[in-house]
Amino acid sequence: MSNCQHNTAEPLAQDNIFPHGSFISRNMRNRRLGHQSGVIWLTGLSGAGKSTISTLVEQTLFDRGYLITVLDGDTMRAGLNADLDFSKQSRQENLRRAGEVASLFAQTGHIVLATFISPYQEGREYVRSIIQNNFYLVHVEANLDDCIDRDPKGLYKKALSGDIENFTGIGQGYENPNDADLIINTSENEIETSANKLIAFIESISSLK
Fold it and tell me: Which of 72, 109, 124, 148 could in theory staple to 29 by disulfide, Cβ–Cβ 3.0 to 4.6 A?
């Protein structure tokens, strides 16, 4: 029982909070599962293919025995983050909450595919600072015109007509990451090819060897 990771020396500053530790370490979980846990953060414009790729990758790696889950931006906004709008301040809070959730999953052995537009470098660096270990940034790149043509959720049509404000790519900018661990261009590659690129990347970084 001496390996318990409780931190009981001092409470956190806010409201005397004492984070609860566990006798089961992250490394123990990883060894049991046979792979490293971590967070694969997929950034890119709406319609670039982040969620579509992640769903295919999740299915394939689950079938291969990986403990893997998709943490989707729209799913978060439908529940935990339903109180947030799309202002820059709310986007920052959206990423903070998402980063904390993704970190909790990774600590318990999951490979997390986090699909968030996360348009600003500052926000992505903030998420990296939350997750720290085994954080990987993947830029799912696509031409804006291709994203508008695809428009799988009809959001670009609404943004272009003025029904949605602060929509990334139309009313709000997107900063291409300069520190991506992997770039997948879906304007140049089919979805299956793009998914296979991500699968190969994940298998390379999650090996315990």
Answer: 109
What is the distance between the alpha carbons of residues 132 and 114, in angstroms, rounded to a whole number? 15
Q: What are phi and psi of 8, to 5 degrees?
A: -110, 10
Q: Are 113 and 61 in contact (CB under 8 A)?
A: no
Q: How many whole angstroms separate alpha carbon 182 and alpha carbon 54?
A: 14
Map residue 140 onto helix, strand or coil.
Answer: strand
pLDDT at 88: 79
Map tokens 């049991």 to a residue: 32
Provide the CATH number for the domain formed by 35-206 in this structure.
3.40.50.300
Positions marked active-site: 118
Domain assignments of the chain as residue spans, ordered by start = 35-206
Cα separation, 117 vs 100, whole angstroms: 17
Per-residue model confidence as pLDDT tens digits over 99-108: 999 999 999 9
